[in-house]
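Notebook p. 47: complex prediction with zinc ion.
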Amino acid sequence: MKMTAAVCHPGKPGFVLETVTLDAPRSNEIRVRIVGVGLCHTDLMISEFGAAWNNAPAVLGHEGAGVVEAVGEAVTKVKPGDHVILTFRSCGACDRCTDHSPAYCRSMPSLNFAGARSDGSATISNANGPVASNFFGQSSFASHALTQESNVVRVDYDLPLELLGPLGCGIQTGAGGVINSLAARHGSSILILGGGSVGLSAVMGARLQGCATIILFEPQQSRRALGLEFGATHLLDPATTPDLAAAIRAIVPMGVDYAFDSTGIPAALAGAMACLGSRGVLGVVAASPPGTALPGDINQLISMGQSVRGIVEGDSDPDLFIPVLIAHFRAGRLPFDRMIRTYPLADISRAIADQHAGHVTKAVLLP
Ligand SMILES: [Zn+2]
Ligand SMILES: [Zn+2]
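Predicted complex, structure tokens below:
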């Protein structure tokens, strides 16, 4: 079928709205009409490189939510008309998947980043041939996406479907990073670096865990204000905090129990290490420049029993964790909708500029 998609082209940063062709669903595939899709940093990282991904035009987008339109004959998890959130894809069969750790699926790279189906065929094409697709098993910067059972989670009809896509990546990464990966203890202290949608979701996760001290380190005033609303107990502005470790020890003299970095900035990571107390854990979710070394002095790690923990998708098993997040949202404990501003998909460039400038924390595009 013909559909509209925001396409990025090799060597040309940014997106162009184009008409492309989406394959019919195969027996194990699900066609979803996208009603909202979040703009995540991972999409921008790839588009900023001018879509060097597969050296072909590409459809990105991996925080989709929408309505199931058609399913292949082998699909039993959802049916046409169901409302679904799209998340990352996993194989469902390896040791990690069967251990409820699909974010570390042994086939994660090939299922999410190959730019095509496992047999090499493209799900999307244009007049010139195949378009790199199947990004996170969805490529949802488009009016429609082909997905599979492992990366759809059904949700109730009464929820604001167009706002739910970010639960499939940014929100489960931030909240899950604190709830599942760090498993922050009740009454503990945590430093969160960066107050974008992932960092602010980590603030909400920290409040859900009952952390007593939640310190947000973020340059944008509007995002610090949201952090306060979401449960931060202390706010630090990098512009007026020349020595982060000293500022942290003025609040928590023995150092924090946890630090959660959503910036990927090497200097911030090193700063966070200096803030950790005895047995402190630094959780890391954001990509740093290739080749970036681990922060800190290994002798400090040993003498204080500290650790650095890499985190993918907040260690979420989406079928189990997304319903938990939705229950918190319904109860008012995870008001992630406060971070979101919606834009028509055609305004994707304005949404990117606004997100860069800090005018909006989480842009959601409406195809
Ligand atoms: Zn797997
Ligand atoms: Zn993402």
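Notes: The pocket of zinc ion (ligand 1) is lined by residues 90-91, 93-94, 96-97, 105-107 (CB under 6 Å). The mean pLDDT is 95.
Next step: compare against the earlier run before touching the bench.
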